[in-house]
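B3/B4 tRNA-binding domain-containing protein, Pyrobaculum aerophilum. Tokens?
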Amino acid sequence: MEIINEVRNLGVFVAYDVIVNIDNTKYVPKLVEEIEAAVEEARRALSLDTLKDHPIIRAYRDFYWRVLGIDPTKQRPAQEALLRRVLRGEPLPRINPVVDAGNAASIKFIVPIGLYDIAKINSKTLRIRFSKKGEIFRPIGGSPMELDNQIVLASDGQILHIYPYRDSVDTKVENSTREVLVVVAGVAGVEEERLLKTAYYLRDLLSLLGGVPAGEVKLA
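Tokens:
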């Protein structure tokens, strides 16, 4: 799996990884422990009142305003939305083991993570690019929408992700998923090293589900 980045000049970059041989049908105690530890760590380290001023959150908020033209108080960065939930005393949502592991990594390193079922992706080469007028995106939990000049992660005729906050139902991870593409989304002001650490941490979590890396973590 290869990702080609056509919009790096906008401060967009990713770390990505492929994990295979995953058993996503059941939670294992060690994974549950790691997820709970990430939640407790976030609650110790961060405050709901000052979260918006954290330099990493600030970088994503600035990207929303300046590059995407989105008000981040109305459409919050994905990791900020998760952290706000946790800091209000609520648990992380339970979706399935792989997605929950991704959410744990997201709040631990304060970056958004996309997870995609490789069996549902129609190409081995993906591009981060601007959408073309008339392309249709089918979001998880929403209605299909027509895109016009938005930054997306896409294969041939298939939109996986609106960068960096919304994933497609077409490639979502389910209990039957065995092979996962992990994409950690970066913006200007966030170090590449943070994305790499996130990817390797998530690799460790997915190993608890039998996951095996299918190569090195890469940057694009």
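The domain at 2-219 is CATH 3.50.40.10 (Phenylalanyl-tRNA Synthetase; Chain B, domain 3).
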